[in-house]
Amino acid sequence: MGGNLGVRAAPFTYAAHVLGAAAAVLVLVWCVHFRGGLALDSANKNLIFNLHPVLMLIGFIIIGSEAIMSYKALPWSHEVNKLVHLVLHAIALVLGAFGIYCAFKFHNESGIVNLYSLHSWLGLGTICLYGVQWIFGFVTFFIPGAAPTLRRGALPWHVLFGLFVYILALASAELGFLEKLTFLEGSGLDKYGSEAFLVNFTALIVVLFGASVVVSAIAPAHIEGPHGYAAISVD
């Protein structure tokens, strides 16, 4: 589809790297500067929660995005790119699961019930689907022995389902930003203050970042010349 529109993957890949770096810096500024820092164990339970958005955005979404783009963007052989793709997705999955653990830990130690919001339902469902996608990819495309016809038939579905799960991850992140900011504003945070502005701006950056990654994934690395009949000159 991207090729039909004359769109190459490279510009969107570069844009995604810049936007991903910006999103990572912004979420760290929010959690460290405005929210007080990060901690796995602390008397201030909010510091435990702060690990959740950092791990989910940087560890899960950004590293997962790099895994998606690596398959096409890296200049190495197909087998090396496939290995990088697999390893980066595994790292994203582990960090995402740990980020969800931090949210549960914060709730349990603060006396807050778990899994009561759409964000939590969608987030937990997304991490489970991500794990299923990784296992399917590992068994089908990485372990030797799968029939070539099976791999060819499964590849379009693997790509489609992967993008679906990725979009779910982005939607879950946006719901998370909205939910947390709503709670903070309900507790007295200035709705037009610098922190509220930072959170909303970070969420917008994540939307643009995700869009760049999706276009980078579906657009071809190179655009082929137009196919058609050349004009025939008549002498």
UniProtKB/TrEMBL annotation:
Keywords: Electron transport, Heme, Iron, Membrane, Metal-binding, Oxidoreductase, Transmembrane, Transmembrane helix, Transport. CDD domains: Cyt_b561_ACYB-1_like. GO terms for molecular function: metal ion binding; oxidoreductase activity. It is a multi-pass membrane protein. PROSITE patterns: CYTOCHROME_B561. Pfam families: Cytochrom_B561. Residues 15-218 form the Cytochrome b561 domain. The chain crosses the membrane at residues 12-35, 47-71, 83-101, 121-143, 155-177, 197-219. Two-heme-containing cytochrome. Catalyzes ascorbate-dependent trans-membrane electron transfer by utilizing a concerted H(+)/e(-) transfer mechanism. This is Cytochrome b561 domain-containing protein.
